[in-house]
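Structure tokens please, single chain.
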Amino acid sequence: MKSNRRSFVSAMVAAPLFVPASAFGANERLQYGVIAVGGRGRYLNRKFKELGARCVAVCDVYEPHIALALKDTPDVKTYVEYRELLENKDVEAVVIASPDHHHCQMMLDSLSAHKDIYAEKPLSKTLEESAKMVQAVRKSKQIVQIGMQRRSAESIFKAKKVVDDGTLGRVTLVKAQWHWNIAKPLNNSPLEGNLDWNRFLGKARKRELEPMRFRSWRYFFDYAGGNMTDQGTHLMDVVQWFMKSGPPKSAIAHGYVAKMQGAEHPDVFCAVFEYPDFMASWTLDYANSYQNGWSITFMGDKATLILDDAGFVVYEEPWKRENPPLIQEKAPVPVESHIQNFIDCVKSRKEPNCTVEIAAQAVAGPHLANLAMFKGRKVALSDFARVS
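Here you go.
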């Protein structure tokens, strides 16, 4: 049975269910396993360890990744098949750091195995998956945190308060951007070590191994939403969080592959989102480092707030080049705070800072923008209905 846009969006904003109190095992240390120990998975593994959690299992389809993970966490059980890791009774929680096309099924299977979950963003590969994942989490009693660490950054809270206090006045336009000069042709040279290619593909289209599809999976349609959803889920979440807006009504987008030859997803793009009371743009250029890194500019009729990886600054209206900032703060975004929030919530059974509903709303706009870019037309959220 199909439902309208309202029911589709409601799946992303459903109220959390009550979760009963619980605690870790007798040693009071969270015991976890990591599903996919590529670069990001190993990074998260180290951060969890630094915060006192205990890794007891790791899983990956690529043998060299397992070998590197064992350097950080020796004497843990290793798996190629993640479902076998989920059967391990010593694993209380899982860290999911797999390619995007595995996120949904791995989360559903982890919930069925009664594991708490820290999952990397973006939440999903499609809008339909987002709705399915939200519903599954809310039918479970598990704690699920999505890895959008700005949700646990104290300095970001300070910037949000500036907006909440009305300092900016009416915000009419928000501009998110990410500039890195890192684009280059994809590496398709032979892989070293054993790869279980069929497990990597999972439910994706079957094809012969191309090493660049494994090395750079984010840039292929079958496995991910490109940087539109990867970096975009971080930045559009902050836009919507600060503006208290929910997901956009529609999106348009244009992009192209400038220097990342071999990729399907672009390394230069611009998306524009329609909200009821403001507009937002999301621009990425991986072939230029001007204003290097990410930033979000909130433009109000009383002041402008610019938030980036150095901090945030507020300029009063009318802006003049020589005017000093009205407010200026440093704004680190430590991933440790977000992981600690998850660990605390596993123990207390309280809702974490980045729920699946938040993550579903954050990636909704970028999903629409990808559809708009590749369909060559404006795409509205009302075009979609979830299957109930």
